[in-house]
Amino acid sequence: MDLPVGISTLQHTDRWIGIPLCAILTFFRKIFEATGPPGPRRVQRVLFIKFAEQGSTVLAYPAIRRATAMVGRENVYFVVFEDNRFILDVMEIIPEQNVITISTKSPYTLAIGAFRAVLRARKIDIDAVIDMEFLTRFSAMLTFLTGAKSRVGFHTFFGDGPYRGDLMTHRLLYNPHLHTSQMFEAMVEALTRDPAMLPTFDFKPPATQPFAKFNPAPGEAAEVDALLRRENPAVGSAPLILLNPNASDLLPLRRWPPMRYVELSRRLLERYPDLFIAFTGAPAEATANNRLAAEVSSNRVISLAGKTTLRQVLVLYTRSQILVTNDSGPAHFASMTPI
Q: CA geometry: angle at 274 spanning 270 and 278, to 5°?
């Protein structure tokens, strides 16, 4: 995720402005929000909130499918940062017009986008919101402001996480023993339970979960093959391994030392004489990736950073044998392909 506003700016704003605003909204909730009737609440329209990390959105696929089974595909909505909308459109799981985007071009557009998202949610008459953000206060506030009668989200019961106020009707504990996709599905399942019984309820994760499959459009494979030949005419139909050296700025500790990729490339090329290696990455990573590709010193290395669209990257995965990445985003995208 490459946000013009800047990740550090968003994090500091979420902390220093989010904490007092969550406290104020919690105060108003305690005074003005009536306690609902006991038992599960009727749900007709569901809104998911997941601003960033497109890879996590891939993991939300089973949860979104569960919601569509509950209320119908046309009654499921999603709020996401504008730059992260792409993967929702690729998954083709809800109507395109049901995706509500928030621009992050500036703090002003971010605030206006959030305000418009709240107005649209109220106009649609959303009655259930699922906040899939683990830590942010911004999503908790937006969830509350939609006016939905049922609001599912993670809550800090014992001071073991960031303060997000008390804005959810269905408060859940994050369970580190469940896979993220299972945790997301549990959030949808919580809508079928009495809020008074939460966070404990009898949810048993399914043994298997369906995940989205990417289907290239006619001609897209040929387009990517042409791109590869343009960058290196010798590639032909040779086996291809993709290396993605960068990790999201959200957690720099996930990065593997860059020179390890150079060493890995040299070993692979030496062992497999027919193999080609391509370095992938976003435009902002192009300079660093080009430097690593040049460091390998081989005519069987292709540098693709900044030269492909996200959709072309997915098509590239269908053409390749292996992906090596220390960022979970590309790995989650790749799970939609045969790689």
A: 80
